[in-house]
Amino acid sequence: MPDLAIRFGVFDGAGLRAATWKCWTPPGKEDVYLSCREMGGALKASLHESGAWHVAFDNKFFDANVRQEDKSEKGRFLDKWRAPPPIVPGVQLAFRIVTPWGSVCTPHKEVPEIAQAPKPAKGMALEFDVLIVDSTIHVSGGLGKNNVNASLVGSYKLPSGRTGWVVYREIPMPALPTQTGGVRYFDGKTLEDLKDDGLKLLAFGDAPDGSKVIYDFVVS
To answer: How far apart are CA 37 and CA 8, in angstroms?
Structure first.
């Protein structure tokens, strides 16, 4: 049986896009996974039914590409946390993905199997929300418009009757703090690899309300 899956991204309708994403659940499972499709499975968020959630590198990718001197006590894990409480009864906000308007800059060919959200206005950002909804919640006409003032990307039902949803909405660009730090390279990569035009960056963090968020940035 195929995975239950939603594939989505931000497109401008004129040949440019931002990063694209996959939210999925393996057959017969309750766990929900989220990954950036351009990373080819190297890194994903795992939202387990048990409530033990994490973001981690794939085992094989980590062993083959992360230098021994760059490995820490965290191993392949970037972050671990417990599933958050519902934002409203029966609705759990699992993840946010924020795409600033300037990140819609990657040329593409038509990809019909990907749900295409519109590019936000200049100075704004588009936020995707990954939601897990209890089977006790009755949704009429689409969760996005009725419950969280957003538009529906897609949804699928889990074996327990719970439902996974992805919705989007346009938001003001968040004010982010300045970050500093060193750079660690994957095996075989150098400073020269950061000088390519169109280089993108994914930043992982915590939103002000405590939810987890991924920002899709352009490197300049």
So the answer is: 10
Q: What string of H, E and C letters represents the secondary structure of 112-127?
A: CCCEEEECCCCCEEEE
Identity of the residue numbered 178:
T
- Say how far apart CA 194 and CA 214 lie, in whole Å: 20
The per-type count for the chain, helices as H runs and strands as E runs, is 2, 14
CA distance 101 to 151: 18
Cα–Cα distance for residue pair 127/107, rounded to 1 Å: 21
- Per the CB < 8 A criterion, the answer to whether 191 and 184 are in contact is no
DSSP β-bridge partners for residue 182 = none
- 3-state SS class at 102: helix
Q: Say which residue the tokens 């039914």 belong to.
A: 49
Two tokens, residue 18: 């931002």
Which residues make Cβ contacts (< 8 Å) with residue 193, sequence separation at least 6?
A: 185
Cα–Cα nearest to 77, from 55, 102, 100, 92: 55
Q: Token pair of 215, please?
A: 């920002």
Which residue, 22, 41, 40, is CA-closest to 32? 22
Q: Tens digit of pLDDT per residue, the chain (220 long)?
A: 567 999 999 999 999 999 999 999 999 999 999 999 999 999 999 999 999 999 999 999 999 988 887 787 788 999 999 999 998 899 999 999 999 999 999 998 877 789 999 999 999 999 999 999 998 886 655 554 444 578 999 999 999 999 999 999 999 998 888 888 888 888 888 888 888 777 889 999 998 777 899 999 998 7
